[in-house]
Design a protein that fits this description.
This protein is an alpha+beta fold and 429 residues long. The chain is built from eight helices and eleven strands. The strands form three sheets. A five-stranded mixed beta sheet has the order 6-8-9-11-10, covered by helices on one side. A four-stranded antiparallel beta sheet has the order 1-4-3-2, covered by helices on one side. Strand 10 and strand 11 form a beta hairpin.
């Protein structure tokens, strides 16, 4: 799963900050409501305590007058007595605690057998109530929003300074052609002034990396192209000279066989040169291809491999289950099959080598020395050899085979067990 980029993460931070600001507003309003409820509950408890205290005093002395203090004003309406002494806003109140919206007073009506007691709590000064219940929570909310907004502004400025250079680098690097990275765009003298600190160090590292990659790719292509071109001339001379020698009448059979091997080796070298040229070309440049039967190439390479085995006690078998028509450069297929057979012959001292063609693949199996799992994991690395003590082999055959298979969309698999042998499979489809 792809992680979100820096702009998305910064947007998320701002959204979270906006939510926090909203929570501050809601929290301030909720706190004001809770404070108001707590204040009313405290007054109600105070009035109930005062009423209980008065009824005890009244029980001891019925002439005890109702409370009349700075904060509480009391009225006692005895049974049968008219309610004229009561203020008009209290006359219709039933038993219980009440809060008068018109005056802001809180009233407790406590009715008993001795009469009905009205206790009125004097309202707090309007200015103080408004201040503590309205202005203070609002100020706290505004201060919270201001603090969060200030932090958000600082975060935005910091993120902008951090993200802008990275976005600039990302835009430049994303436009590079992987085959020809333009390192000059990130040269120190061409960087904008805002690219400083770690971003400038990153740009310098990318500039050096792109420059080295470009030099490496150019050097590799030039070497492969030049070496392949220079090899063509001596190979042509060898082929023409061997053809002329083979045309000599009454040629000694041993010399004739030797000349045949020279011709065969020359053709193999020409195939290798063509494979190198293909690897040196651009991926989007299609090499010349033609239709051919894979079994014909396998038979040719098996015949060549028999000469490599000489008189070793190794049998070389071929089985063609069904043919595989293929559209590709034939010489590339020669290189792939010949390398697999050469490896099998090099590392098999006795036993059997078997080649099977069919079902869209070629399988080369042997009963040679095999490889351990550690060696099998490194077998496609250049210059790696499963048994360095052997004189044959340079450790480049299988890496070349793998590159050629990847170039044409084929797939190569290797299975091996130490002391039992190796099986190589090339899937053409």
């Amino acid at each position: 799963m792809m992680r979100p980029g820096l702009p998305q993460r910064i947007s998320t931070i701002f959204i979270v900050q906006a939510l926090l600001a909203s929570l501050v507003l809601v929290g301030g309003y909720a706190l004001s409501l809770l404070a108001r409820q707590d204040h009313g509950a405290a007054i109600q408890a105070q009035l109930q305590q005062e009423a209980a205290h008065y009824w005890k005093l009244h029980e001891a002395s019925p002439a005890q007058p109702p409370p009349d203090t700075y904060g509480i004003r009391g009225y006692l309406l005895q049974p049968g007595q008219p309610d004229l002494p009561l203020p008009g806003e209290l006359r219709a109140l039933p038993n219980g605690f009440h809060e008068l919206a018109s005056t802001g007073q809180r009233v407790l009506v406590d009715e008993r057998a001795a009469g009905r007691l009205y206790l009125v709590a004097a309202p707090a000064p309007q200015g103080n109530a408004t201040f503590w219940r309205g202005i203070v929570p609002l100020l706290l909310a505004l201060l919270g929003i201001y603090a969060i907004s200030w932090l958000a502004w600082l975060a935005w400025r910091a993120s902008q300074r951090s993200v802008t250079p990275l976005s600039w680098l990302l835009q430049r690097v994303s436009q590079w052609d992987p085959r020809y990275p333009d390192a000059d765009e990130l040269a120190p003298e061409r960087l904008p002034a805002e690219i400083q600190g770690e971003a400038r160090q990153l740009a310098a590292a990318l500039h050096l990396l792109a420059k080295r990659i470009g030099q490496y790719v150019t050097r590799e292509r030039n070497f492969t192209r030049d070496a392949s071109h220079e090899l063509r001339t001596p190979l042509t001379v060898i082929r023409m000279a061997s053809d002329m020698a083979l045309g000599t009448p009454d040629l000694d059979p041993r010399l004739q066989r030797s000349l045949g091997r020279i011709q065969r080796a020359g053709r193999d070298m020409e195939a290798v040169v063509e494979a190198f040229l293909i690897l040196a070309r651009e991926v989007d440049v299609e090499p010349q291809a033609e239709w051919f039967e894979v079994a014909d190439i396998v038979r040719y390479e098996v015949a060549s491999a028999r000469e490599v085995l000489d008189e070793r006690p190794v049998s070389l078998e071929i089985e063609v289950i069904d043919d595989i028509p293929l559209l590709a450069p034939p010489r590339v297929t020669h290189v792939v099959i010949s390398n697999l057979l050469r490896n099998a012959c090099t590392y098999t001292d006795r036993g059997r080598i078997r080649v099977e063609v069919g079902n869209g693949k070629v399988v080369v199996s042997d009963t040679g020395i095999g490889m351990s799992p550690e060696a099998l994991a490194k077998v496609f690395e250049p210059f790696f050899r499963a048994e360095p003590g052997r004189q044959q082999g340079s450790g480049l055959g299988l890496p070349i085979v793998r590159r050629l298979c990847e170039r044409f969309g084929w797939r190569i698999e290797l299975e091996s067990t130490a002391g039992q042998g190796t099986t190589a499979t090339v899937h053409f489809r």
